[in-house]
Amino acid sequence: MSARLSVNLNKIAVLRNSRGGDEPDLVRAARTCLEAGAHGITVHPRPDARHTRHDDVLALAEVCRAYGVEFNLEGNPFAPERSGYAGFIALCERVRPAQATLVPDDDAQLTSDHGFDFVRDGERLEPLVQRLAALGCRVSLFADAGSDVARAAAIGAQRIELYTGPYAEAFAAGHAGTVLPAFAATARAASTAGLAVNAGHDLSQANLGAFLDAVPGVEEVSIGHALIGEALYDGLATTVRRYLAIVSGR
């Protein structure tokens, strides 16, 4: 089964914000990715507006609707509303993304670096999962390998997204085989619980194929940092097509 590719555009927003203004243009980047064949667009607007912002979410939702592809909105559902940030649930109510991916990050984190503890967080997550589902969003929960994914299913999620940072680190160190069994076992446990499986974080052209070969049933990968970095050398459309060749080769 081929996985689907959703391109995360946060890093393009970081570059734009470093200078101010509108360049590089996120909408143009999204269109380039989609015209190259990407199956969807992902962004993770943070309360601190470090990269994608409220206005970006509105614009990219329109692009995805125009192209008939999925918009995946990531965020921390517990982050409070503040100036310039309406809150993750409010953003979802505004744009109704095809998928809402809940992630337990906070302002102090440079990037997402762990999944939910579903035993600890499940009671707080459940009403938010139900609220998002009522909007028509497919709800995915960020999960570590080895986590209690059956609990994620019990609170109403349709998917988990495996946090693949530890895999990318192990791959770079030459011992991916020590961590892949835990990811594969978690994916199988998710399937048994009725959950579909996504994956993301530090996946790249170098390590993606080995991950998909070892971990069964991955339906979608969300890739941004490596893809945008590689695109600086080879071009955005070319890089997207190279990732599509990897995911379609499964």
Automatic annotation (TrEMBL):
Family (UniProt): Belongs to the PNP synthase family.
Entry annotated with the keyword Cytoplasm: yes
Active site: 44 (proton acceptor), 74 (proton acceptor), 201 (proton donor)
Annotated source species: Luteimonas kalidii
E.C. no: 2.6.99.2
Protein name listed in UniProt: Pyridoxine 5'-phosphate synthase
Reaction(s) the record says it catalyses: 3-amino-2-oxopropyl phosphate + 1-deoxy-D-xylulose 5-phosphate = pyridoxine 5'-phosphate + phosphate + 2 H2O + H(+)
Annotated pathway: Cofactor biosynthesis; pyridoxine 5'-phosphate biosynthesis; pyridoxine 5'-phosphate from D-erythrose 4-phosphate: step 5/5
Residue sites binding 1-deoxy-D-xylulose 5-phosphate per the record: 46, 51, 111
Chief place where the protein resides: cytoplasm
Keywords of the record: Cytoplasm, Pyridoxine biosynthesis, Transferase
InterPro entries with a match to the protein in the record: Aldolase_TIM, PyrdxlP_synth_PdxJ, Pyridoxine-5'_phos_synth
Binding-site residues for 3-amino-2-oxopropyl phosphate, renumbered to this chain: 8, 19, 202, 224-225
Residues carrying the site annotation Transition state stabilizer: 161
Recorded GO MF terms: pyridoxine 5'-phosphate synthase activity
Top EC class, one word: transferase
Functional description taken from the UniProt entry: Catalyzes the complicated ring closure reaction between the two acyclic compounds 1-deoxy-D-xylulose-5-phosphate (DXP) and 3-amino-2-oxopropyl phosphate (1-amino-acetone-3-phosphate or AAP) to form pyridoxine 5'-phosphate (PNP) and inorganic phosphate.
Subunit relationships: Homooctamer; tetramer of dimers.
Subcellular location, record wording: Cytoplasm
